């Protein structure tokens, strides 16, 4: 999914004095979640990010690349809706790019889950159909490795170890040849993944950042489902994607971290792509003044571009809008709140032009109120 906000509303390049201190890597802290395990209509739901945990990655001798976004999808609050049964065509997933030992391409690890009640019948059949080249079991969980298709990708499918036979798992390692001692790493991943599956469904892990951020990160708190519906006039698909920057990055020579929430609409029976809405927060170590300056500088730059669009009303003290192009549709609205630069981006072929700016600006005002508490 391509989000408009990943390209629009970026600070314009400008020479700045050096920031305070070197950028820190791998500062994202993960710990087991404290919420109850998720269910859909009484059926347990596994979250891949609670299975492919940081300790499983580390035990396999792997590490995420610098500046990658970690995280994945989960059920959204209020998603236990009967009309969602059989609608999920895309797997619930958890993924990240890994440091490579060879080649030009970064390897990627992806763990996906399908739930028997949520998934479409065709997606469930595809995920559970026997295509084994090498079958086995570990920690009481059965698995089979799918045949090599010559695309430098390894795929292993897992059952749920007797936890209701309601969830199916698939582990993908892309650009497998770029992983040092890949077969050994794969064996360790299989051991860790099966151990966590055997332990039963668990909530999503909790993520936080150390000082000076001092933040427990909950990206989708900024965009509850009702905000998505207010902007798109559509219900969500019942899922949300929470993404977390693994380490600090440089924004015009200022230190910052990045967290993102993404939601998409429920697929209908037409050929239309679903609408998507993302909220990207860039949170500055140096505080509110730096964040406000960068948003002001960015909006001054956007004012010189052809896609710039005035907002019906300002959002906070500094804000601006950018129309989407013919590929993405929609619009992006950027604003400042506290120590954070926020980009709210809509991708929609049904909502375009001034209407898109107005709808996204209205959603941005609601998001501003949630973040400005």
Automatic annotation (TrEMBL):
Residue segments, region Disordered: 1-21
Protein's name according to its UniProt entry: DUF3558 domain-containing protein
């Amino acid at each position: 999914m391509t989000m408009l906000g990943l390209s629009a509303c970026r600070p314009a390049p400008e020479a700045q004095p050096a920031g305070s201190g070197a950028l820190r890597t791998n500062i994202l802290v993960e710990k087991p979640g404290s919420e109850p395990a998720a269910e859909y209509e009484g059926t347990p739901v596994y979250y891949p990010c609670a299975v492919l945990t940081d300790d499983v990655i580390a035990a396999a001798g792997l590490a995420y690349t610098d500046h990658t976004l970690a995280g994945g999808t989960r059920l959204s609050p209020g998603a236990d809706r009967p009309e969602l049964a059989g609608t999920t065509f895309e797997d619930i997933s958890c993924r990240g790019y890994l440091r490579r030992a060879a080649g030009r391409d970064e390897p990627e690890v992806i763990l996906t889950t399908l739930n028997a009640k949520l998934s479409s019948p065709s997606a469930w059949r595809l995920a559970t159909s026997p295509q084994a080249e090498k079958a086995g079991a570990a920690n009481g969980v059965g698995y089979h490795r799918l045949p090599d298709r010559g695309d430098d990708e390894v795929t292993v499918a897992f059952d749920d170890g007797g936890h209701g036979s309601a969830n199916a798992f698939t582990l993908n390692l892309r650009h497998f040849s770029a992983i040092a001692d890949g077969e050994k790493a794969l064996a360790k991943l299989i051991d860790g993944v099966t151990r966590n599956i055997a332990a039963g469904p668990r909530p999503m892990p909790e993520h936080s950042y150390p000082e000076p951020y001092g933040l427990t990160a909950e990206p989708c708190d900024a965009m509850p489902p009702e905000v998505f519906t207010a902007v798109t006039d559509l219900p969500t698909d019942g899922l949300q994607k929470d993404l977390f920057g693994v380490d600090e990055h440089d924004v015009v020579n200022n230190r910052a971290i990045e967290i993102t929430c993404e939601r998409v609409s429920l697929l209908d029976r037409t050929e239309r792509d679903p609408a998507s809405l993302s909220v990207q927060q860039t949170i500055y170590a140096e505080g509110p003044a730096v964040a406000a300056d960068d948003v002001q500088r960015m909006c001054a730059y956007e004012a010189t571009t052809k896609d710039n669009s005035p907002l019906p009303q300002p959002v906070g003290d500094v804000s601006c809008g950018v129309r989407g192009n013919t590929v993405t549709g929609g619009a992006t609205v950027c604003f400042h709140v506290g120590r954070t630069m926020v980009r709210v981006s809509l991708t929609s072929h049904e909502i375009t032009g001034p209407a898109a700016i107005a709808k996204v600006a209205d959603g941005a005002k609601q998001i501003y109120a949630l973040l400005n508490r």
